[in-house]
Design brief:
By secondary structure, the chain is an alpha+beta fold. The chain has helices at 4-12, 36-48, 132-139, 145-151, 191-201, 206-211, and strands at residues 15-18, 21-24, 56-63, 73-82, 86-95, 98-108, 157-161, 176-183, 223-233, 243-253, 256-265, 270-281. A hairpin with a 3-residue loop joins strand 4 (73-82) and strand 5.
């Protein structure tokens, strides 16, 4: 039986239909729209297919329209620049003739140079934290049947949460989260797979951090959606191993929340950073 991680990896393996055109398909997450992390990962794969032997060091994307999980997504890559050290690509994801997502990506040859980093927060190791299944079993009485079905769905990423956050009964908390992530299946030696699946995972949990100080969540009627997403890869890593994403929301205003995060290995190496702004609209707030 095909597991969700197998399905996600299969969907990240895009079909090339022309030199700079790729076609991808979606895994339904039960929300009626394409998961943003999937589009980021597929757009990155499309860009990587046009670059030789240079890993991505940054990406900057905008979510323009909800994607339909029942339709294929066409990824058009624009080869902006091929320089001596850096390569730049622009990717547009298209459905029904309209752009649903656009992303600029940059690739860099390996260079030695100056190095420093922030210190990893002191948090419990993933082995000392409960699994998602253990947390769900403890809190299942708090969920409606529909919520429970959603929480029980299979996920391609294993997660261990440091903070005790309950989206069904949210309470006001500091806008900080620490979550350990890793792939549920070994990814092999293709570094592009590791980058794309971490990019996929980077859209999981970020926006909820900005909701914590307000005691609101998508489960209590808050309308949420990712608006833009930026990511930087600082050092090589393996997503077969645990990665801590330390998240902090520094602001929310105008029905938008802003979050930034740092990504650490268990050994304390800072391997990536991410920033996102997302929609957080109260359901009774009129749409402009």
């Amino acid at each position: 039986m095909l597991t969700l991680i197998d399905s996600v990896l299969e969907h990240l393996d895009l079909e090339r239909i022309e030199t700079n055109l790729f076609r991808g398909f979606s895994e339904s997450m039960g929300s009626g729209r394409v998961f943003g992390g999937q589009v980021i990962g597929q757009a990155l794969i499309a860009a990587l297919r046009t670059v030789e032997e240079r890993p991505c060091h940054s990406l900057h994307g905008y979510f323009l329209r909800p994607g339909d999980p029942d339709l294929p997504i066409i990824y058009e890559v624009d080869r902006i620049r091929d320089g001596g050290s850096f390569t730049t690509r622009r990717v547009v994801a298209i459905q029904k003739g309209e752009a649903i997502f656009t992303m600029n990506t940059s690739f860099h040859v390996h260079e030695e140079g100056l190095s420093h980093q922030a210190i990893m927060p002191e948090v419990p190791s993933p082995d000392d934290l409960p699994t998602e299944q253990e947390v769900l079993e403890k809190n299942k009485h708090l969920y409606t049947d529909e919520m429970l079905k959603h929480q029980k769905r299979d996920r391609p990423i294993e997660m261990r949460r440091v903070e005790n956050v309950n989206y069904a009964l949210p309470v006001k908390m500091a806008p900080v989260q620490h979550i350990w992530y890793r792939s549920k299946k070994p990814l092999g030696d293709d570094y592009a797979r590791h980058q794309c699946l971490l990019a996929y995972a980077s859209d999981m949990g970020l926006l909820s951090t900005a909701q914590l100080p307000h005691g609101q969540s998508w489960m209590t009627g808050l309308m949420t959606a990712s608006l833009d997403h930026s990511m930087w890869f600082h050092k090589p890593f393996s997503f077969d191993e645990w990665i801590l994403i330390a998240m902090e929301s520094t602001a929310s205003a105008g029905s938008r929340g802003f979050i930034r995060a740092s990504m650490f290995t268990e050994q304390g190496e800072l391997v990536g950073s991410v920033a996102q702004e997302g929609l957080m609209r109260l359901v009774d707030t009129p749409k402009n």
